[in-house]
Amino acid sequence: PVGPLDDRAIKGAIKDDKAIAEKLNDFFASVFTAEDVGEIPESAPSFVGDESEELSRIEVSLEEVLEQIEKLNVNKSLGPDGIHPRVLKELKWEIAELLSVVCNLSFKSASVPNDWKVANVTPIFKRGSRGDPGNYRPVSLTSVPGKLVETIVKNKIVKHVEEHNLLDKSQHGFCKGKSCLTNLLEFFEGVNKHADKGDPVDIVYLDFQKAFDKVPHQRLLCKLHGHGIRGKVLSWIENWLKDRKQRVGINGKFSDWRGVTSGVPQGSVLGPILFNLFINDLEKGVSSEVVKFADDTKLFRIVKTEADCEGLQEDLTKLSDWATKWQMKFNVDKCKVMHIGKNNPNYTYSMMGANLATTNQERDLGVIVDSSLKTSTESAASVKKANRMLGIIRKGIENKTQNILLPLYKTMVRPHLEYCVQMWSPH
């Protein structure tokens, strides 16, 4: 459930669904970046190929459209246009040819139909107080045909990025063959290697403020150009970002439409790869070890001497400078430092003029990590959650036959015991 939402103006709670939707949409719109388009910084080019290797035009075949229609999940929600994925799938032979014509006209004219640029936003509760609009993540439900076309564009971009090896190896989010698990294993393999030798290590967990929603569009386009995405493809993406609108839906009640002036829509198909390319050069010039999962960023460094600590501080300053340059923001209150090792100097680090808080325990991509580097806390927490689910099944299910219990166990219990288990219980 969403809400009730706290409202200081009335010194009470908002309970009406439409009023909640309006309040949330106002909040989601309030975090958009007012971009300084007068001074767009230059982006150091990652792409060094010649003009023939640029991704500058897209042509789509009937076969490609049919392939994407076949892959549609008929259980997914429909967008504001009301076109259900089942309709596309069951009428694929009648629709595919027409849709391929529309796609190619769209790519040739670098113009995206308005129906593909509007979204019904579903607020997803994260944690904390349900009365705080800041504790909800906006997930956009957009046109199914529009998302199908986004998938075609995304596939072309991913192919281009992979062929030219453009994405930094530190990125694990939304990358083929990578995951939360590979992120954690790679990072803590490095940390443990030094900690096992008795070397003190400092880890800094960074927190971007509303990262996906704040991406400034002109700066994003500048970054895409630097990755060899140019010509009609870049113009198409620019048009896809332009004049977007969203409304929030709560129990069938909708807010008024609001313009979307920054960000890449969460829930869109194109959003993740565009975001990855936007922050691809985040750690350029940083000497500490950096690992990312989309916007979740962490870094570590051996800190035997004060000079080592100062080196990590310099890296944090470089990251702050990057954020300022590209009009992004770190939520400094949520950035944390973890000191590891008995001989750790416990240096005080700062960003944006504020000292960073220290922590002995942090939830890293869903896995509890503590400064002892022992995994007992995560093991105990996982077992506790699994046992809680078993208790719910035991009390709530009367028919305890195998064909009923086994699917429940696989979907409600095992995920708690198996999520990134190679990280916290490898043997």
From TrEMBL:
What InterPro entries does the annotation carry? DNA/RNA_pol_sf, RT_dom
Pfam families per record: RVT_1 (PF00078)
Q: Where is the Reverse transcriptase domain?
A: 105-356
Alphabetized CDD domains for the sequence: RT_nLTR_like (cd01650)
Protein's name according to its UniProt entry: Reverse transcriptase domain-containing protein
The organism is Pelodiscus sinensis
